[in-house]
Fold:
Amino acid sequence: MNDSIKKLLRITDKNLEITDVSYETVNKKQRLVINATLSPCPQACKSCGSTAKDGDGKTIIVRNGKKKTTIRFDQYNHMPMVMQLKKQRYKCKNCETYWTAQSYFVLPKHSIANHLRYKIISLLTDKVSLSFIAELCTVSLTTVIRILKELKS
Structure:
């Protein structure tokens, strides 16, 4: 079932595990909520380059909790869809730095999936209003304007 949901969402990340799919009502509107966990195995520290284990076999990079984020996706069956994603956090014992696992389908420090960003960009090429694009993609008008400005630069 997990792989079937990932195929429907066009997600190919092997480290993503979908734990639950449910419905939620927000502001008298129902939306589809996907609960998932992203927990890849760390290879090296992003700061100092230390590997996960040293020569003696001691663990250098350790798991340090999870960070919960909400990512907006494109509508599914005319229903807004969000993913409650728990990203694994890591700590390097050598340089005392922390970082969070990243996925390819959302940019770092963003909450809108790339699929939805590409849909907004394709709608911007049509002759429709910005407010209609925002309503169709269930995002704010400010988000549509921000994506339009990103294309300009």
Remarks:
- The first helix runs from residue 2 to 8.
- Strands lie at 16-26, 29-38, 61-76, 79-92, 98-100.
- The chain is about 25% helix and 35% strand.
